Amino acid sequence: MAKCFSFTATQDSCYRYSFTRAGLKSSTTDLGDGTIMHCWIPKKHNPSKRTLLLIHGFGANAMWQFNGIIPQFMPKFNVYVPDLLFFGESYTTRAERSESFQAQCVMSLMEAQNVTKMDVFGLSYGGFVAYSMAAQFRERVGRVCLGCAGVCFEEKDIGEGGVFKVVTSIEEAAEVLIPQTPEKVRKLVKFSFHKPPPSMPSCFLQDFIEVMCTEFRQEKEELIQTLHKNRKMSDLPKITQPTLIIWGEHDQVFPLELAHRLKRHIGDNAELVVIKNVGHALNVERPKELYKHLKSFFIDNHPSSKQASHGNGPKAD
């Protein structure tokens, strides 16, 4: 008997409705050279507001990762939420798989939307992309928040004696981050949460895999492999923008040691906040506390918070 109901697809539709109700609309941009970027953009860009770019990590599409904080930011910002390449509706036929290329594609997308300056919050893998954007486009990226983003890890950190304790190889990491069985989903949840939620039945987990984890599987594996291969601290540029590093105390995906390493690397421009009793999935385990720190950084402590001086110029809707 053919399956007639998908819990995952239904939840995805609910998130789509939530984004639309918050004031966003779905937009697809052809960047040329076989690259298509999907993004949630404001229904009407307000030039008196600053722009905030939210960049997701591995897992489901961007809606699933930012649904909890979108409504709070909409009154203060023009919010843009892209799907990175090989997530959601974004893809490329080109061979590049680096976070540098992802960053260039996101910036090209913003250029196509006539947005010239933006603040950025990158979550996990999205933090790698946000960091690269800040390094490549210093004049266009303002404040940067990196959430549980192990930008400072090195190739040697995975394996015997490395800082990663839950995986022993990049192949194992890919199997967990791109789960293909219900048991692998359970393993991912266990690693991502300090206090994992009750396990769901295998039929629901298999449905999630079929909807969210099968398309572009090879390309996603290549993203992970490229992130790891020959990675060295000596090759990582220092960003100069005001930066908030926010981390879960019990993060097992990117251990807390990497947060302190990143703070030392960036220096005085960076502030580190560690949220107690939480793992890697900050946005799910502690959404209110995460928003509190984001609000403090992007709104309360912004030098132009009381004046609309972070303009983006005219924006054609």
Automatic annotation (TrEMBL):
Domain AB hydrolase-1: start-end pairs: 51-287
* InterPro entries recorded: AB_hydrolase_1, AB_hydrolase_fold, Epox_hydrolase-like, Meta-cleavage_hydrolase
Which Pfam families does the entry link to?
Answer: Abhydrolase_1
| SUPFAM superfamilies to which the protein is assigned, alphabetical | alpha/beta-Hydrolases (SSF53474)
- The residues forming a coiled coil are none
The molecular function terms of the Gene Ontology recorded here are: catalytic activity
Q: Which domain of life is it from?
A: Eukaryota
**PANTHER family in the cross-refs:** ALPHA_BETA-HYDROLASES SUPERFAMILY PROTEIN (PTHR43139:SF25), SI:DKEY-122A22.2 (PTHR43139)
* Protein's name according to its UniProt entry: ALPHA/BETA-HYDROLASES SUPERFAMILY PROTEIN
* The species this protein was found in: Salix koriyanagi
Q: What is the lineage of its organism?
A: Eukaryota, Viridiplantae, Streptophyta, Embryophyta, Tracheophyta
